[in-house]
Amino acid sequence: MLNDTAAPNGLFTDDDHTARCVWCRSTAEYQRYHDQEWGFPVHSDTRLFEKICLEGFQAGLSWLTILNKRESFRAAFAGFDMDKVALFDEADEKRLLLDAGIVRHRGKIASTINNARRAQELRAEFGSLAAYFWGYEPASGSRPATITHQTLSGVTTSPESIALSKDLRKRGWSFVGPTTMYAFMQAMGLVNDHLEGCHARERALQARAAFVPPRKP
């Protein structure tokens, strides 16, 4: 059960007096995602590809909506195996448009299939998606000074997310705007936006300290 009082520093506490970033207070599933995934470094190409696709599906929606449908998305998109998704054809697009378990948006479905093919190209060039994406980690690993409009943590873009978005678009990716890419970087641990006082912040910092970013061969 949640304590109904959110602290002015952007945190809230539950009955066990565990402090968390206030954006995750609405459901237990959101809190599990915050505690166990958000901000922790990821090197798995499958997870990186999944997340960038789901961030694209989130555009115009809440992350909670996508999180609640994540297992259905995984089933629909072959576990986000980029090699399998890259082989999807028109029949698969029609199948996905009839799948009530996912967000049935024709443009986002087509984008995911396109991006799987672009992901294969990145992997061929850099050795892995991880080697490519971790090349955009900010030097400080922390949030930028300039805040534009609100996302989960209050920050929407950074110079690195803008540069990442620009490069991906040049490479033919879609639904990869700067705000979407900053959310991706937050979730995959390229930045740690757990607030000071959040119980997960130090664990995320420790995980990053032990993490060796993959590099292009």
From TrEMBL:
It is an enzyme of class 3 (hydrolase). Keywords: Glycosidase, Hydrolase. GO terms for molecular function: DNA-3-methyladenine glycosylase activity. It comes from the Bacteria. It holds the Pfam family Adenine_glyco. Its EC number is 3.2.2.20. This is DNA-3-methyladenine glycosylase I. It comes from Rhodoferax mekongensis. The lineage of its organism: Bacteria, Pseudomonadati, Pseudomonadota, Betaproteobacteria, Burkholderiales.
